[in-house]
């Protein structure tokens, strides 16, 4: 195996699942996306780059009218912008003036520093000097280099009552089991960052907490993490015959609670209730997420959410083909799926693992499936974009990635498979930037292409005789 290549940060690698090599120890911390993005931007070239085309402006999705004012820590929410990896939020005050002709003129001026957000939400800590009842704000999307990719949203008016009772608790962003493709064997927990938080405590429970928004650990706690940033990838498979719950508490630099725990949110994946379903198995391309900042619980980034038939997602970010073989029995067999859609190998090949080793792992996965009455359906491996991978993660890609992927795909072509790659490569044979900003993890347009290919082929797949898998 070639020398392991460093990521922007080890935390970034874990969270995005961008190719942790076999044998590398996985940290339980979540990523520092603000730090990682800033470092990644320093590695991105700017000379000769085209200015990005401006996309449709974001839409404000949470409003505070005079009849329902915000408290001293308003939560600002807006819609996602394609191509944005972060957002620039301006906090404004209205200035009423008169122009040269004496006519009334309105302008908006910042009264706080611009805020940066890496999700489509922000908890605002109004300054002590703010004593008004109204402020204004607007937001725009930015790319990896901090350049605008959208116009600003319309200016939004926010009514505030800074004297109303307020108890700090984090605002969750990850909601499970509410639509197609929204089950994860390896959950990811996201929330809006809390002002002043130095770290967080994420608690996994097997029942609702006895003190819902308190500060003490619950008697129902079965696991916990202490990430530095507002996201946590669960390192353990969560399956069982009753719901799990997750919640998060913000902590200051001394480890003291800032407010209380967030509301506890449920998620579930019961093997007994999922017998015979179609399972998805693989690495981060199948787990979900993309555009650097978006996690697998941003469901637009999950191809499973666009499929025309139900699935369970048993993928894990960071998997190599060897790691997939190692966990297959414990993670897949309890569900006794009828089919397993397998996409794995990108992390191995781009790190320099020989194609023959990946093919051997695919053969082993097929053998494991068939020995347990499961029909494997392989997906072809998409191309890569090494320049974008370098810009996003400061990681080099193996020189022979083209021939290695082609060799593995040649093997996949001899199996029951679905080719998801048509239209993904640019004129240089590399993954189109508009399909994957980071050169690896397909964004919603790419995930929709994957799903369309699977949907179009699925009826034919299910009509195949058993002998097709021999």
UniProtKB/TrEMBL annotation:
Q: Which UniProt keywords apply?
A: Signal
User: Entry's InterPro entries?
Assistant: Ester_Hydrolysis_Enzymes, Ig-like_fold, Lipase_GDSL_AS, SGNH_hydro, SGNH_hydro_sf
* Name under which the protein is recorded: Lipolytic enzyme
Superkingdom, according to UniProt?
A: Bacteria
Against Pfam families, the record matches this protein to: Lipase_GDSL_2
GO biological process, alphabetically ordered: lipid metabolic process
Query: PANTHER family attached here?
Result: SGNH HYDROLASE-TYPE ESTERASE DOMAIN-CONTAINING PROTEIN (PTHR30383:SF5), THIOESTERASE 1/PROTEASE 1/LYSOPHOSPHOLIPASE L1 (PTHR30383)
Top-level taxonomy: Bacteria, Bacillati, Bacillota, Negativicutes, Veillonellales
Q: Please list the residue ranges annotated as the SGNH hydrolase-type esterase domain.
A: 280-447
Instruction: Give the residue range of the signal peptide.
Output: 1-24
Provide the GO MF annotations for this entry: phosphatidylcholine lysophospholipase activity
Q: Which Gene3D superfamilies match?
A: Immunoglobulins, SGNH hydrolase
Residue runs in coiled coils: none
